[in-house]
Amino acid sequence: MQETVMEPDPTWVRLETDALGSRKIPRDALYGIHSLRASENFNVSGTTLASLRPLVKAFALVKKAAAIANNRLGLLTDEKADVIGRVCDELLAGQHARHLIVDVFQGGGGTSSHMNLNEIIANRGLELLGYSCGNYEHLHPVDDVNLSQSTTDVHSTALRIALLFELVELENAVSGLAESFAAKGRAFKDDLKLARTHLMDAVPMKIGEEFTAFSHVLLHDLENTLAMRAGLSQINLGGTIAGSSLSDQPAFTHAVIGELEALTSLSLMPAHDLVAAAWNMSDLVGLSAGLKRQAITLSKICNDLRLLASGPNGGIGELSLPPVQAGSPQIPGKINPVIPEMVNQVAFHIIGSDVAISLAAEAGQLQRNPFEPMLAYALLGATGMLAKAMKTLAKQCIEGLMVNLGRSRNMLEHPQTIENGLVPFIGLKDAHVLAQSISADTPLSDLLAPYLARKPKS
């Protein structure tokens, strides 16, 4: 049923019409009728496209590259290509965020996010050309801004571009945190502590070894995550709706990917099978698995930090975490491990998001996956949160972390602990005899030093 065309209100300056009828658009709005309907239809989360800043920037880069490519192929005039590029530069600079009104949870496989950008670029371009918004005969959101493109290839490409950039931030964050742990490893490389298995006393170990292990595992997990870059670099731009030969445009595909590489400094290539690329989300599933793996490792490390810093008198108390805020208004001097607790929660969120991502990737039907908007929200959120959490952990916790060496030594002053530590070096019988004869006032480090210098018995 068609909507009735309404008369303009003095506070509104234009009507826009689509297949469903006409709607009044606010005077200062750069978005158009598609965005307006989408904002009404998908008003569910309260989180709009404006919150996905990396995705908006990637959209702008794709649109600018497409305009340049279409111009080179003689499909778009110099004037239109230039003004589209100018608006894309404004979007890259963070302008026009208030016009990004579409909810991140939406039907249509990203069509509404895509059209929100198309309409903003067209209407802002019209302003720069000296026309009023809505005069699409001079610059059209579909015929010009979206020329040679479709949501299937643009949204998919923009998401992968955004993730490739976010992985750079994640790499920096992981490397920084790993180095913070490695520095602690170097600082305490010769100091002893009690290792624990099953939360029970086990054997002596080097304090530095514990921190160094944290560093190594973080970097190893990062290697696994960054391996996903190869899949993300294969894009389906130019494949249009279903990637089929019906929309084959090899000249545009070659031109636009070249322009996008120049704009992003990324190494990109066309997907091997454009039909598969229209629906296959396996690269995104792989990335999510990598992020979950890193989140699990990070959460385990934070569990250890909280446990080792517990007490400090009634718990283990081997570590002192930096006091960043008061722990309780009713307990003077109480300091809680709030930074590791925050990181734990980020990890829980990422682990849960991985389940949602898996379901969304599996649930796509036939030649299109309609759940890509949720994949974008979940993956960009997970990557960005993980990077920020790691940077915060490094700066607010690990760099100022202190080791209570006296407490660590006291934990070792027990014959059973000493015996366990000596077994690999002098054998079970001799270790038992020596441990039972040790004087309590003899420094443990002096007792163990000769044995730790030996090679373990075969």
DSSP helix fraction = 55-70%
Overall tally of domains: 3
CATH top level of the largest domain? Answer: Mainly Alpha
Q: What series of H and E elements makes up the topology?
A: EEHHHHHEEHHEHEHHEHHEHHHH
Molecular structure report:
- It contains 16 helices and eight strands.
- The radius of gyration is 29 Å and the shape is elongated.
- 57% of the residues lie in helices and 7% in strands.
- It has helices at residues 33-41, 53-72, 78-92, 111-129, 151-187, 207-226, 229-232, 250-264, 274-277, 282-308, 338-362, 372-398, 405-412, 415-426, 428-437, 444-452, and strands at residues 12-18, 21-26, 192-197, 200-206, 234-235, 269-270, 319-320, 402-403.
- Mean pLDDT is 89; it is low at 1-6.
- Helix 8 (250-264) links the parallel strand 5 (234-235) and strand 6.
- The chain starts with 11 loop residues before the first strand and ends in a 6-residue tail after the last helix.
- The chain has three domains: 12-147, Fumarase C, Chain B, domain 1 (Orthogonal Bundle), CATH 1.10.275.10; 154-243 and 274-405, Fumarase/aspartase (Central domain) (Fumarase C, Chain A, domain 2, Up-down Bundle), CATH 1.20.200.10; 413-452, no CATH class.
- Helix 11 (338-362) packs antiparallel against helix 12, helix 14 (415-426) packs antiparallel against helix 15 (428-437) and helix 14 (415-426) packs parallel to helix 16 (444-452).
- With 458 residues, it is mainly α.
- The strands form four sheets. The protein has a two-stranded antiparallel ribbon with strand order 1-2. Strands 3-4 form a two-stranded antiparallel sheet.
